[in-house]
Amino acid sequence: MQNGCAVVVAQLAEMVSNLDRRETDTVAGLNELIGNGVLHVAGSQYAGITLAERSKSVTNVAATHQYPIVLDEIQNQYGEGPCVEAAWRHHVMHVEDLGAEGRWPRYRRYVLEQTPIRSILSFELFVDSGSMAALNFYAESPHAFPDDAVELGAVYAAHIALAWSMLRRQDQFRSALASRDMIGQAKGIIMERFNLDAVEAFELLTRLSQQSNTRLIDIARGLIDSEHPLKRRR
């Protein structure tokens, strides 16, 4: 088992590295990783990533099936469940048989009514001042996850947490580039309309942003849309 686990860990590290090289979209990258987790974590049939806020708002970030989405909707509605618990209070939550579980009575009731899920394995991905995330594996039979599944699931959680941080940085960088390009287009429009140089055009955009209490990128987007209204309708 140790040799097999070492091979999976090596493959997982290579997957994360490839996501970085390919500049993969965050959601697509996370879905790829949890899909691989279902293939290798013993007993797992489905997987998902839960994001929860201190306000108790719960959303699904990635899922290999509809069931993880349904379970997160139930957690969001009732503010309780093992995936939320995994991050706020415990690093790992292992529900061996949901049918015999005494915690989270409303969550338990509606999951049993709406899905065939009976085993849940949840791992903390990260916790910050306002939110948390958990990686979750699910199975339809009770007692589905052996001890080595818990160990390998923790390895997946560590790699996915790293990948998520990396992918979010890439998204922020791409967003920053797109914003820069859009502001550049808006400057060009102002320069042409009012015969201003680049510095004067940017100062005008900045004043409009401050006076209207509107983000600079939103001012730029509105200006571009007004210049090219047909593009906005497409």
Automatic annotation (TrEMBL):
| Top-level taxon of origin | Bacteria
Pfam families annotated for this entry?
ANTAR, GAF_2
Keywords from the UniProt entry? Kinase, Transcription, Transcription regulation, Transferase
- UniProt-listed InterPro entries: ANTAR, CheY-like_superfamily, GAF, GAF-like_dom_sf, GAF_ANTAR, WH-like_DNA-bd_sf
GO MF, one annotated term: kinase activity
Establish whether keyword Transcription regulation is in the entry.
Answer: yes
Q: Is Hydrolase included in the keywords of this UniProt record? A: no
**ANTAR domain: which residues?**
163-224
Q: Which ranges does the record mark as transmembrane? A: none
Q: What PROSITE patterns does the database record attribute to this sequence?
A: ANTAR
Name this polypeptide is given: ANTAR domain-containing protein
Q: Which organism is it from?
A: Mycobacterium europaeum
